[in-house]
Amino acid sequence: MCMRDSLYRRGLMRSWEPDALTVSVGNIGWGGSGKTPVAGWLLDWAEKNNIEALLLTRGYKAKPVSYPYLVKPGALAEEAGDEPLMLATQHRKAHVVVDPDRTRAGKWAMKNFTPGSSFWTTDFSTWRSNATSILSYSESKTSTRNGTASSRPAHGVNRPQP
Fold first, then answer.
1. Cis omega (within 30 of 0) on the bond before 68?
2. Distance between CA atoms of 34 and 117, rounded to whole angstroms?
3. In the prediction, which pLDDT does 29 show?
4. Is the Cβ–Cβ distance between 28 and 135 less than 8 Å?
5. 65 exposed, middle or buried (CB, 10 Å; 0-12, 13-18, 19+)?
6. Phi, psi (degrees; rounded to nearest 5) at 57
7. Model confidence band, residue 97 (pLDDT cutoffs 50, 70, 90)
8. What residue spans of 27-138 are helical by DSSP H?
9. What pLDDT is recorded for position 44?
10. Contact (CB, 8 A) for 23 and 120
11. Fewer CB within 10 A of the end CB, N or C, for the chain?
12. Cα torsion through 59, 65, 66, 68, rounded to 10
């Protein structure tokens, strides 16, 4: 990650900056750490504030006919992925777009919609966008008296502007 970030900062790798407030929701690890609930909360916030929202996600296990894929309520879970379909169904005013290449999806969505905000779910291994802000967290395991462990978000980070 540090090397990739350095290459982007020096201009040796290209990045893209969306024309909307952009928040990237991600963590250091892979799946299962709470990106989807946080993305849902952000979509709720955008809807309550009358902001047209866009959510870009790679759509784990999604197999659409083509990319980018705009997820609509009633789509097949096999095409959209179960979590993008759930978010599109719960947040009907939002545009939920599946594509492993979130930059391609973002450019496509910016041509087809006029979002006031965009939210990206990512593990940061494929980061290629200049987000306004990054909400990053890692799982923090804490022991309890009965020997079980619980997880909680550890921190939020804003990306420094160059």
1. yes
2. 20
3. 56
4. no
5. exposed
6. -145, 150
7. very high
8. 35-48, 77-80, 82-90, 102-112
9. 92
10. yes
11. C
12. -40
Q: Which amino acid, one-letter code, is at 152?
A: R
Are the CB atoms for 119 and 41 separated by under 8 Å? no
Cα–Cα separations (whole angstroms), residue 159 to 48, 74, 82: 25, 36, 30
Q: Which two tokens stand for residue 50?
A: 């009358």
70, 84 in Cβ contact below 8 A?
no
Structure tokens at 86: 């759930």
- Name the least confident of 18-22, 38-42, 135-139, 142-146: 142-146
The secondary element (H helix, E strand) that includes residue 8 is helix 2-9
CA dihedral (95, 96, 97, 103) in degrees, to 10, reads: 80
The Cα–Cα gap between 101 and 129 comes to 11
**Which residues lie across from 75 on neighbouring strands?**
none
Residue whose entry in the numeric block shows the structure tokens 């594509």:
99
79 by DSSP, 3-state: which?
A: helix
